[in-house]
Structure formats: C-alpha cells, structure tokens
Specification:
Layout: H1 6-24, H2 40-44, E1 48-55, E2 58-66, E3 73-80, H3 89-99, E4 103-109, H4 114-128, E5 132-136, E6 143-149
Parallel strand pairs: 3-4
Antiparallel strand pairs: 1-2, 2-3, 4-6, 5-6
C-alpha cells in the first residue's frame, strides 16, 4: 500500500466502476467514464482517505474511507484488479486500511456479488470474530456489515 496517486486511482476507478456495472447496472457517460465526479471529495475533503495498493511497481487496487471524524468509518470503495484477486492481497490491504482507523466501521456490498459476499463476511469474521452485524438495505448497496476495531 502506498500514498494515494490521483491519476493512477482515477484509472483504477474506471475499472472498478466498469466491474460494478455488472451488479448495479448503468452505462458510462458520453466521455466513456463512470461517475468521475464522485472522486472529487476523495481528494478534496479532509474527512476522506485514499489508499493505492501496489504489487511491486504495479497498481493492483485502491480503497476510499470516509467518515474519519464521524461516528463510524465507511469503506466507501474497495477494489482489487482481477489479475490480483484470490492472491491474498485483498485481505492484506483491507486489514491494513482498517488498522489505520480504529473504531466503528461500516462496509457495503451487493448481495448479488457472491464473491464480495464471501470476502466481506470473511473480513468481518477475521477482524471482529463474532462481533459483527449484517443488515440488508432496500437500495444498492444491498448489505452493510458493521463492526468495531480497537
């Protein structure tokens, strides 16, 4: 994990949004980007943190955390490129991100994304044991996991 590199994260964001279109629907805008405007607070609001994941000199993913000064940290976005999935890097970096911001956490995912369901339940169990909850929502994201870290 390294410092947030905005141009690299913006390119990874496009890959992430393309992947999420499978579960959330939607098409890119006329400029072939997905919701680039949603990146603005990540880099301009002090209540957010952005993390770039690398393997050697290669970018392999990112995460955005919001609510740093609020009652709970929210893992707003989390992405690992397909070529790095199932290698253990996702669990490694999510543990590091969460350890940097102790306290209550909320993480959302789509219940139609079976890989995400399994991953986030495993993350919650490894980090919080049995002390986590899962609540469905009516609109995407479909499910929120909550737990607290020391």
């Amino acid at each position: 994990m390294s410092a947030a590199d905005r141009p690299t994260i913006e390119r990874l964001w496009l890959m992430f949004r393309h992947d999420m279109a499978e579960f959330q629907g939607g098409l890119p805008g006329p400029d072939a980007t997905y919701h680039r405007d949603r990146l603005r607070p990540v880099f301009e609001d002090g209540d957010w943190a952005a993390y770039l994941f690398t393997s050697g000199d290669r970018p392999v993913g990112f995460s955005f955390v919001r609510g740093l000064s609020g009652p709970a940290r929210v893992l707003n976005s989390f992405f690992v490129v397909r070529g790095a999935r199932r290698s253990g890097i996702g669990m490694e970096v999510v543990r590091e991100v969460i350890s940097r911001h102790p306290g209550p956490w909320k993480i959302a995912f789509q219940d139609s994304n079976t890989a995400a369901v399994a991953f986030w339940r495993r993350v919650a169990t490894e980090i919080a044991g049995d002390a986590w909850t899962e609540e469905p929502e009516d609109v995407p994201p479909d499910v929120w996991i909550s737990f607290t870290t020391a």
